[in-house]
Write a structure and sequence with these properties.
heterotetramer, A mainly alpha (about 325), B mainly alpha (about 100), C mainly alpha (about 90), D mainly alpha (about 475), B: Helix Hairpins, 3 helices, elongated, C: mainly alpha
Chain lengths: ~325, ~100, ~90, ~475
């Protein structure tokens, strides 16, 4: 692939990405912008693969396009049923037409100036060779990290603290959703053909999730991509009209939701007790500890994303506090 | 190699500007949630362009981990925003 | 020889993609557009996958491509069915 | 013993999980976690005062590769303030939520908010700060929407969107820094950052994002509705702690990491915005009809004071004058934290006892709720900056610093701001001491009223008298 044809490919890809982004944001009809946004996510996954980031491409396709799209489409589903709809949340202030065009132009100019500034600063940065200090440090310490895939090593070992807080962010989001009220009404049971697809697709998705989790140690994959695939299986079951979708009852659902952060803390405290640094896995045990944490994280991520799609506690289940 | 890295970084800047413009201008909630997600994708493109070291050389894994974390954080924020919107729509229906 | 065959297959696949897209733009009602899209794109994808499979380093990766094609085949057939059923129901109701 | 640094983050997180798994015992578990974490913060403060800045490398990796937690005098003091405010507010919340169904939802989110605050104050890594900012934003929004009414949900939604926009701008700045300098660790960056276009642009992006989260004057529109409609303990945490954590980040970036990138003009711009915030916030507080709206606008004003310090810190050469001014800034931040939290808790008591918090219907409150009215008065003392309070020492240093650097405008603004603060405080007290025709008997609910009293007393008296220790701690931690 000589460089010119590669350049043409990049040009086409980037033009389609930017135009998809523009179309998604500029279209008035909510349904159109959501569909265009999902297309934008998928083409973006292609761009990440082009930039030699397969882990990120998997996550972008599964979470960025797939699950975000499912959440947005579910929001549209409510939008059609409720009169108020997801339309304008802030009150329409009756500024005169002249003023809105002035605001519109000044914001556009501001953003254009930001783009030019960012571009100019980045051109300035790319003049001198890239600073590889961190990349070299990761490469040198890779064999100590217990996994051979550098991205998983950074996520689960060198910067494991980031991933711990990120799982806490997921937990906060789902607790916020539960606090907001009961779940959405379920979908009506699936017809013959969709039921056939579900009966075949869901086991394959679960198998793929397990494979992604296992392969994450030495090839692109890992807890996030596996969790998203498992969540996709839950979403398909939910769309097929099965209300319980394999989500356990309230108490065990909370345990699964808290599993990711919980396992991280257990390992961290255990290592602290044995005098090592928090999340400083002993090199001999690192691989298995990472797999243990990733399994719990996968389950937590899948349960969180499906609960977000369901929109609350599954109906048959409510928190049993005695009020 | 430099042109690929620069090409992706510059289009990342354009996407960030697009997202910011739409987030500031549009008042409908769905468009603002999409705008913030698009802006995030723009920043991720800049990060991955910075990590790119050419077709043969392995890229820098640290920005990849950052972008992975960013994607998961973005989807959890989107989920909470849509849940709030649903509750708001339900409340406005009752009265 | 392999390269010639796979580029031929890929070009044929592209042709069907373009046909499907033109069908989407030109055909009048939902059902015929659905028909054109599902058929043309799936065939196009089959040819594309076959062309790509020839380029793959080993049999396993080629098989993975074929699995991807089968999954998309089933998924697009089901979604086409669902869209058509939904449209049919809405027509009978209105 | 630097393990205390990670204990301060992982303990509230573990407490949040326990509260989630044991909904019926959530209150007891949360209070126990609160006490232990407060003790841990105290021991951290002691450790910093004896050993100076503490460093904890997570996972045992060197700071560049892994993430480092850092605690110097500034973050240790703010950590202790956060711990004490949350401890007192937790006792109040245990009474406030005892009857409502939201109890099982409140405690896990409350401890997650605390985790985010501690993680942000201790983190020494730029991308980790982005993740803590998101955790802080999401938990604050989830808590603010617990109010359940339309106003609460709508305000929480706008707060979330503004917060996400702020975090995205911050992330853009972080990516520029990584592109330019190839590192994310604050210590490494403070050595390698030079005044060049990439640094200016990254700093302005990050600052824009953080100013959105600190609600500095032009970007404060989301704060009053969000803080006024949230439940009382939540608005106490939002006003006293959450906006202050974002301010701490601006201070850390401007004065520590990007110290030589910051230009006097930029510092003056921040101070100008701060000055307008002081005047505009105090004026709107004076005209507010509801107590909570008054307290929310007072937060906008008080944060304005903190930004007035920037040109002073930038202009003063390193030496006793600079340390005095930094100490004044911290003292003002601490005293506002305690006073505002206490004020919101007192307002919560009034709202629960009399059904609403409109200022016009406050007559007789002094007779019915003497302890709460006394707490509001003490909070007023700290907000105005009268002598025994920590705010007095802070404003004194602000005025002294302005004299030293010859920047007169800030003195005028401080004086007018204090007068306006006095006006809106006495407006509340005037109504509260209005005599009611049939004075009902005074009744005191210890668990609800004492937390507010202790917090405002700390701000108004303890901080003022024990002020010197703050300065010694800052030098020790520097």
């Amino acid at each position: 692939m000589n460089s010119t044809s590669l350049l043409v490919f990049d040009g086409l890809l980037l033009v389609s990405i930017v135009s998809l982004a523009w179309a998604a944001l500029a279209s008035i009809d909510a349904r159109r912008s959501v569909i265009l946004f999902m297309a934008f996510g998928l083409v973006l996954a292609l761009a990440w693969a082009r930039l030699r980031a397969p882990d990120v491409a998997l996550a972008e396709a599964a979470i960025g396009a797939g699950l975000s799209g499912a959440l947005l489409l579910a929001a549209l589903h409510d939008h059609d049923r409720t009169a108020a709809g997801v339309g304008s949340s802030s009150t329409q202030n009756q500024t005169s037409a002249g003023l809105t065009t002035v605001i519109r132009w000044s914001v556009t100019l501001l953003c254009a100036a930001l783009a030019v500034g960012l571009g100019w600063a980045l051109v300035h940065v790319f003049d001198h060779p890239a600073n590889d200090a961190l990349a070299r440090a990761v490469a040198e310490n890779l064999d100590l990290s217990g996994v051979s895939n550098p991205v998983t090593a950074v996520l689960l070992n060198f910067r494991a603290y980031d991933t711990l807080l990120e799982l806490a962010v997921l937990l906060t989001a789902v607790l916020g959703i539960f606090a907001l009220g009961p779940a959405r009404a379920g979908y009506q049971p699936a017809g013959l053909i969709f039921d056939g697809l579900t009966r075949w697709l869901v086991p394959v998705l679960i198998l793929t999730a397990a494979y992604l989790l296992w392969v994450g140690a030495h090839a692109p994959g890992g807890a996030f991509q596996a969790g998203a695939t498992l969540a996709a299986a839950g979403v398909v079951l939910r769309l097929a009209g099965r209300h319980q979708i394999g989500l356990p009852a309230a108490r065990t659902l909370h345990i699964v939701l808290a599993a990711g952060v919980g396992m991280f803390l257990l390992v961290g405290f255990a290592l602290l007790a044995t005098g090592r640094a928090f999340l400083g896995y002993p090199p001999a045990w690192a691989g298995s500890l990472i797999l243990l944490i990733e399994t719990a994280a996968m389950l937590a991520i899948a349960a969180t994303l499906v609960s977000a799609f369901v929109g609350g506690q599954p109906e048959s289940v409510t928190i049993d506090n005695e009020e | 190699m430099l042109t690929t890295q620069l090409l992706y970084a510059l289009s990342g800047c354009v996407i960030v500007a697009l997202g910011l413009r739409s987030a500031l201008l549009h008042s409908s909630l769905l468009q603002r949630v999409l705008a913030i997600n698009v802006m995030g994708s723009g920043v991720f493109m800049i990060l991955l362009a910075v990590a790119y070291r050419g077709a043969e050389v392995a890229p820098d894994p640290v920005p990849h981990a950052l972008v992975l974390t960013g994607i998961v954080v973005a989807v959890s924020a989107t989920a909470l925003a849509l849940a709030l919107a649903r509750r708001l729509a339900a409340e406005q229906d009752d009265d | 020889m392999i390269n010639a065959l796979s580029s031929l297959l890929i070009l044929a696949g592209l042709f069907f993609y373009i046909a499907g897209s033109i069908g989407l733009l030109r055909l009048p009602d939902l059902y015929s557009r659905l028909h054109a899209l599902t058929k043309a794109d799936n065939l196009g994808l089959g040819l594309l996958t076959a062309g790509m499979a020839l380029q793959m380093p080993n049999l396993m990766t080629a098989l993975k491509l074929v699995i991807i094609w089968l999954a998309i085949l089933v998924a697009s057939a089901t979604s086409a069915h669902l869209i058509a059923r939904h449209a049919r129901r809405r027509e009978s109701r209105s | 013993m630097t393990d205390v640094l990670i204990i301060l983050v992982s303990l509230p997180l573990a407490g949040a999980l326990l509260c989630l798994l044991l909904p019926r015992a959530a209150t007891v578990v949360a209070l126990i976690t609160a006490v232990i974490t407060a003790l841990a913060s105290g021991s951290l403060l002691y450790a910093v005062s004896t050993q100076g800045t503490l460093l904890y490398e997570l996972g045992g990796w060197t700071a560049g590769l892994g993430i480092a937690l850092r605690a110097d005098g500034l973050s240790a003091l703010l950590l202790v303030m956060v711990a004490l405010v949350i401890l007192a507010t937790s006792f109040y919340a245990s009474a406030y939520f005892s009857k409502s169904a939201a109890r099982a939802h409140f405690w896990p989110l409350w401890l997650l908010l605390w985790t985010a605050l501690n993680a942000l104050l201790l983190s020494g890594d730029l991308f980790n700060l982005y993740v803590t900012l998101e955790l802080l934003g999401l938990s604050a929004v989830a808590l603010a929407s617990l109010g359940g009414k339309i106003a609460a949900v709508q305000a929480a939604l706008r707060y979330l969107l503004v917060g996400l926009l702020g975090s995205m701008l911050f992330l853009a700045g972080v990516s520029l820094i990584y592109a330019g300098y190839g590192s994310l660790d604050l210590a490494v960056l403070s050595r390698t950052v030079e005044p060049e276009p990439i640094a200016w642009l990254a700093l302005s992006l990050m600052t824009a994002g953080l100013l959105l989260k600190t609600a500095l004057f032009p970007l404060h529109f989301w704060l009053p509705p969000a803080h006024a409609s949230a439940p009382a303990p939540v608005s106490a945490a939002l006003s006293a702690l959450v906006v202050k954590a974002a301010f701490y980040l601006v201070l850390r970036l401007w004065m520590d990491v990007f110290a030589d990138v910051v230009t006097p003009a930029a510092a003056d711009l921040l101070a100008a915005l701060g000055a307008t915030a002081v005047l505009w916030g105090s004026w709107r507080a004076l005209r507010a009809q509801r107590l909570k709206v008054l307290a929310a606008y007072s937060t906008v004003a008080q944060l304005g004071y903190l930004f007035l310090f920037f040109p002073l810190l930038q202009a003063l050469p390193p030496g006793p004058a600079l340390d005095a001014a930094t100490g004044g800034l911290i003292m003002l931040a601490l005293s506002h934290g305690f006073a505002k939290a206490g004020l919101f808790l007192a307002i919560g008591v009034i709202q629960q006892r009399s059904g609403n918090d409109s200022i016009a219907e406050l007559d007789g409150t002094a007779q019915r709720l003497p302890v709460t009215t006394f707490a509001i008065a003490l909070a007023g003392v700290a907000l105005i900056g009268l002598p025994p309070s920590g705010a007095f020492l802070g404003k004194w240093q602000l005025i002294a610093g302005s004299f030293a650097t010859g920047q007169w405008l800030w003195i005028v603004v401080t004086v007018i701001g204090s007068l306006l603060a006095a006006a809106y405080t006495f407006r509340i007290l005037g109504h509260a001491f209005g005599s009611q025709l049939y004075p009902s008997r005074a009744f005191a609910v210890a668990r609800e009223e004492w937390p507010a009293l202790i917090l405002t007393a700390t701000a108004a008296v303890v901080l003022g008298l024990a002020g010197a220790s703050v300065w010694t701690l800052l030098e020790a931690g520097a």
